[in-house]
Amino acid sequence: METGGSKAVIFVAFACNLGIAVAKFVAAAWTQSSAMLSEAIHSLVDTSNQLLLLFGINRAARPADAQHPFGYGKEIYFWSFIVAMVLFALGAGVAIYEGVEKILNPHPLRDVFWVYAVLLVAIALEGYSMLKAVREFNVRRKPSGLGFVAALRASKDPSLFAIVLEDAAALAGLAIALIGTLFADLGGYDSADGMASILIGCVLGYVAFFMSREIRSLIVGEAASGTVQRGLREIVEQELGPDKPIRTINEIRTMHLGPQDVLVTASVDFEDWVSARTVEDVTARLQAAIKSRYPEVQHLFIEVQSEQAFQANKSRPVAAASAH
Hints:
By secondary structure, this protein is mainly alpha-helical. The chain contains eleven helices and three strands, in the order ααααααααββαβαα.
């Protein structure tokens, strides 16, 4: 999926969350509902997060320069990580605080009809936003053959899976708020409203933890998917075998510099009879084949190195290597 697909999903989520946040704040002030206030803060945080994601996408799209020769693709990972932290610090923290405050100082809800009305409208809008996000996510997921949760963990586009997770958390939070309101309104359990707020905070905290863990892996430097790695090896192996120019594939390494920006380095050992011109021709063929099959491979480096030299360098102690 291209960045444009992610942007469209973010714009839809932003519009929905902005309208929902305004309605929730008005309803929370009118009805004195802690669960509604927690949901209002949640929607406000989600709205801010979408602005951060859009900012990150625009920053990541900047061209490479002398200071950043591989571009700014990892900016989207950084800003997505900030989104996860904001979701935890503001969303989860405030929701849990409000819930504890309501349990310690319970009071009945006022004009509860407006709570129900806002919650039902919010569920409809969040459901629409999540439907759009899931559809876009499935466009990316289906070619991989992975299940939904596995695809979430394997996704390299945090600007998209962040929206999917935020919308899922929002729907879960709305359901919890609705149940808490029913218990407080119909059952007379005023503390149920506060308990719902605490549960909403726990949901947000879990989503923030999941997001931060997955995005941290991308920031550190995550390899391309197993499918891409196997495909890269298959392409190189076409030049490997009897009467073929390549004797051995020493290694192939990959790293995501952005959702659609992959760095590939390959070390190969050519046969002794191969001329320099043949090496150039084979390298050119490999580069053309790899970039044709995997357009996301924007940086490709092929190193010609004997298997013996590769193994020697691989087993060389780091301290000794750095001393030279």
